[in-house]
Amino acid sequence: MFRNATVVYAHCDLFCGVYDPAQAKIEAMSVLKAAEKYHDS
């Protein structure tokens, strides 16, 4: 599924200095699981 994916690096554009990737990880895993279920169907 991700064989041709390009690796990128990014950070928050806000100047607050607070970055907790926990929510982004949860959302990314949700997208991944949905794509896997779609692919398997």
How would you characterize the overall build of this protein?
- With 41 residues, the chain is mainly alpha-helical.
- Helix content is 46%, strand content 0%.
- The protein is built from one helix and no strands.
- The radius of gyration is 14 Å and the shape is elongated.
- The model has no long low-confidence stretch (mean pLDDT 82).
Overall pLDDT level: 82
Oligomer: single chain
Total domains: 1
Helix segment tally = 1
The biggest beta sheet is recorded as:
none
Query: Stretches where pLDDT falls below 50 for ≥5 residues?
Result: none
The ordered string of helix (H) and strand (E) elements is H
Strand content: under 5%
Instruction: Estimate the global geometry from the Cα principal axes.
Output: elongated
Instruction: Give the beta-strand count.
Output: 0
Whole-angstrom Rg:
14 Å
By helix and strand content, what is the structural category?
Answer: mainly alpha
Termini separation comes to 14 Å
Kindly state the percentage of residues in helix.
40-55%
